[in-house]
Amino acid sequence: MEENRKGHGLAEGKILSIWMILFVALVLLPSMFRVSLGISHFYVKIVIKMLEWATLQIEEGVKKQKALALENLISTGSFPRAGIIQRDETPMEEQVAGRCRGCFSLADVMYFSKKGCEAVAEDEVTQRFSSEELLSWNLLSRTNANLHHTSWKLAAVWVTGILFRYCLLLPFRICLSVFSILLLVLATTVVGQFPNGRVKGWLSNQVQMVCATLGTRCLSGLVHFHNRENKPQKGGICVANHTSPLDVLVLASDGCYSLVGQVHGGLMGLIQKSCMQTSQHVLFERSEMKDRHLVRKRIREHIADKAKLPILIFPEGTCINNTSVMMFKKGSFEVGGTIHPVAIKYDPRFGDAFWNSTKHSIMTYAFNVLTSWAIVCNVWYLPPMVKEEEEDAVHFADRVKAVIAARAGMSVLPWDGGLKRKKIKESFKEEQQKKYCQIVIENGSVGNGNVC
After folding, report:
1. Which of 180, 234, 239, 368 could make an S-S bridge to 214, C-beta 3.0–4.6 Å?
2. What are the pLDDT digits (tens) for 407-424?
3. Helix/strand/coil (H, E, C) string of the chain?
């Protein structure tokens, strides 16, 4: 019995040693030197082939279902009607002003009622706060619309994928995530004891970049960086579109930044405190974030020191689903300095990187990400931009936003991302009212008492 126990112990020790050697050789060392062994590329190619095959299976199944549905319609003699709402993009000036010249028309009420119904059915703002719609099913349970019933082959692949992601990938990713966080906490604690200087700065940068690289590999991350010659420089401000907390992880794996944001508690607070021991970040309490003058003052003091790391800011102020870029807050464009725009675009086929903070907690979001196929994204470093003469902060912010959206292939929206949690401002309503009043005045109905 004792010999058997010793034999089992030796076997377990050998297995553990092999796993440790593989981990160091395939994960830790490549992360330290920031080199890729091609494992993620190979894995992503396999997933792409599988998704392409699944798309063909779904298309064949849908064709069969449509043929059966058409036979049923012909036999019953009933056909579906057209859509309930057909959007008309004609401006208010053309529709209202052209309806009745020279007088106020009660029929104008129908225009606003129609627009209201269209907004209730589907508006262009709230849909940016939900996950991006996929062109084809990516074999994830959370995006499944009973498509696994299309064929038994597709169902078998779907079940196999669930077992692979939850039984193999998830445990490995959780272990690697815990190791990365522990490494960050321990390494920053040690480096934080060094006296301020070049050695401490260099060690701090290396620790953060290694831990960020490990973090991306926790998610089987594959990040393509473009135009590295435009990377943000010290003393500058890096602005990027915001999809999730992964944005910081992705950018930090290729460079070091000082972050501007709110002080968090829990796991996020632990990571923040660890990073603060070795580098200077601009963090605020929730009450201070409302004081715009204080925020601008601290940012201006930071960028005045050209030896400090570039500041990373997400001017949208909230997470958007990576299909559009919403209004950039003007605060970061009022402090002066050079703006370094960065565009981040995730590939939704492999997993949803968007964090809907109003619906999911950070732990639920982390679980969804860890059980996805992978996180694949493209990052474009764009040429630096400065505010032109006689250009105010609002127009400068809009110009930077347009450049980021154009590079990432996303739409530009003028709306404030804060509408996710707040009601629409009265000023927006008043703007539409003023526009309509101007149309009525130009038609000459005011003062005449004409009503059509």
Report:
1. 180
2. 999 988 887 776 666 666
3. CHHHHHHHHHHHHHHHHHHHHHHHHHHHHHHHCCCCCCHHHHHHHHHHHHHHHHHHHHHHHHHHHHHHHHHHHHHHCCCCCCCCCCCCCCCHHHHHHCCCCCCECCCHHHHHHHHHHHHHHCCCCHHHHCCCCCCCCCCCHHHCCCHHHCCHHHHHHHHHHHHHHHHHHHHHHHHHHHHHHHHHHHHHHHHCCCCCCHHHHHHHHHHHHHHHHHHHHHCCCEEEEECHHHCCCCCCEEEECCCCCHHHHHHHCCCCCEEEEECCCHHHHHHHHHHHCCCCCEEECHHHHCCHHHHHHHHHHHHHCCCCCCEEECCCCCCCCCCEECCCCHHHHCCCCCEEEEEEEECCCCCCCCCCCCCCCHHHHHHHHHCCCCCEEEEEECCCECCCCCCCHHHHHHHHHHHHHHHHCCEECCCCHHHHCCCCCHHHHHHHHHHHHHHHHHHCCCCCCCEC
